[in-house]
Amino acid sequence: MSLFPGRSTASFVFAAFALLFSGCMPGEAPDRLEKATSVEEALKIPEAVEWLHLHDAGLTAWPAGVAGLPNLRRLTLRGNALGSVPAEVGSLKSLSHLDLGETGIEIVPGAVAQLTELRQLYLDGNKLAVLPDAMSGMDGLRYLNLDRNRLAAWPAALSGTT
Question: Full-prediction pTM beyond 0.85?
Fold first, then answer.
């Protein structure tokens, strides 16, 4: 009896190899990144932390010390009342995933365009009316969530993108 009714074991093995070689490598899975759930915890091992998960952490400002995490690849600040994002965000050169959803921000600093490794940017549920022109050069960005903002039209900074 097959574990996958209607599918041969060979087709399952082929599918598994296809995923493996398409970039879905086990070391890349977010849950395998070195994760910290507080800035204090992260600053104890700054070189090792790749994911700082501060979802609904009760923050009212950008967390101090984040710029001191040189290998940070994923930063989740969703659900905190940040109100603003400092230009220091541009110093997080290894960042590939930034979640600023539902943080009450009204302005995205142009420094976000310095994040050349950024692939996913969540800005949903904020008070954004415009985006910085510098974002037009973010060629590596593959996913941008702007849902539930105050944007009246497609941002000029993103003209030519879909």
Answer: no
The answer on pLDDT for 113 being more than 50 is: yes
Q: Give the model confidence (pLDDT) of 29-40 as tens digits.
A: 555 789 999 999
Strand partners of residue 145: 122
Comparing CA positions, the residue from 143, 69, 160 lying closest to residue 99 is 143
Eight-state DSSP code of residue 160: T
| Residue-by-residue DSSP string for 24-72 | --GGGSGGGS-EESSHHHHHHSTTT--EEE-TT---SSPPTTGGG-TT-
Cα three-residue angle 143-93-125, rounded to 5 degrees: 40
Which ranges constitute the DSSP H helices of 52-162? none
